[in-house]
Amino acid sequence: MKQMSGARRASAVLAVGAVAALALAGCSGGNGSRGAGGGEGSLESIQAALEKGGELTYWSWTPQAEAQVAAFEKAYPNVTVDLVNAGTNNDEYTKLQNAIKAGSGAPDVVQIEYYAFPQFALTDALLDLSAYGFADLEDDYTASTWGSVTVGDAIYGLPQDSGPMALFYNQAVFDEYGIDVPTTWDEYIAAAEKLHAADPTKYITNDIGDAGFATSMIWQAGGTPFQSDGTNVTIDLQDAGSKKWAGTWNQLVENDLLAPYGSWSDEWFQGLGNGSIATLVIGAWMPANLESGAPDGAGNWRIAPMPTYDGSPASAENGGGGQAVTKQSKNPELAAGFLWWLNNSEESITTFLDGGGFPSTTAELSSDEFLNAAPEYFGGQKINEVLAAAADSVVTGWQYLPFQVYGNSIFGDTVGQSYADGSDLNEGLTAWQDALVEYGNGQGFTVNE
User: Fold this and answer.
1) pTM for the whole structure
2) Residue 190 and residue 335 in one domain
3) Is the predicted pLDDT of residue 267 greater than 80, yes or no?
């Protein structure tokens, strides 16, 4: 699923509620726990539930969901799945949060982006799937995506896609202006200066302030500004990695070297097509979006490893997510079976990839068919070789806030102001931290700086 959380700025605030008062059983359950309604605690038991059948409700906004549900119902004719598009990211999360508070109305299976998983896991809304033997599936997924749906021994979902970051660049523009593909951020800044000086209508990239992008860039820089242990949270948006990224990106922000429009806008797609935006540092799910949204750029674009601070490989996840079973499900074993098929069966994964998704599964990332794909849009380059290598170089240790959905919603009011003013991003990060600390403490967390 493509990353849209920053592009579609959150318009509603999801209150976490008085989480300090929760038992937090969902954050501490081990392999010996059982899901609501019991179950034999094995993948075989959910297979039996699939054969028996029943009815499920599934919330998803992915374009592949309809084809996946049709294939599932053909494979398991005794199961009926009601597919509901409850809205994209924050729209869906608002409805899910309302259903959780009401105690009814949540679907059996729900799509959740990685950055939002901690919020719903902490509020005890998701089923711990370790009760159904899902721990046996860990090696099927990349470490970063598996870590995004688990807390300790508890497994709150299965990854669907991933977004390891890479450098998408317009080879024709680089050739025209004599720019080499940058391997370090210093080289990237120099390329930005050279390009814009030669033609003021051209920019190295765009950025007007996007929480998902900023956190991914801090992640790649080795930052760990968010640390959580239950309701105890530490926030430090002036740690070494945060300051490293801000110090680098300030050179673009303060010198007007970024195209002044947001991602996913008409101007953005036009810039990608006509060459006025020369690069994107973005998740591996982007190729299909480029092909459909910027057809005029066909043949010009290529993909290279993400620039780093010292030249050594390092990436981060940008976007992506998976699915979870809610605790409100009246048939959790059947719901777990559907989720297992959805994100672990070859048929479903193939359907997802054919629709433009990027895999989280190690088998697909290493398959010859996947690695040898050479789309004409990218000049026949075997782009998945680069993207799969990026998945292997994701920096470890990253955590999101247990109220990251809210955090992203106020990014524009804090860090976004630094972008708007062309001023020091560190000031914006400090303002964001102050607001996050105040909010977290008001919601029952114990937040330390």
Assistant:
1) 0.90
2) no
3) yes
Tell me the DSSP string of 400-421. Answer: --TTHHHHHHTHHHHHHHHHHH
Which pair of structure tokens corresponds to residue 148?
């995004």
12 lies in some domain: no
Average pLDDT estimate for 390-419: 97
Contact partners, residue 433, CB within 8 Å, separation at least 6: 225, 235, 236, 237, 238, 449
Q: What is the CATH number of the domain that holds 173?
A: 3.40.190.10
Specify whether 26 is located in the same domain as 135: yes
Burial class (CB in 10 A: 0-12, 13-18, 19+), 196: buried
Average pLDDT, the chain: 91
- Looking at the structure, do residues 214 and 329 belong to the same domain, yes or no? no
Of 103, 108, 105, 82, nearest to 95 by C-alpha is: 105
Our CA dihedral for 301, 195, 248, 209, rounded to 10 degrees, sits at -70
Which tokens hold the place of 202? 């051209």
Of the three residues 344, 364, 389, the one that is the final residue of a domain is 389
Chain CA centroid to CA 435, Å: 23
pLDDT for 41 equals: 60
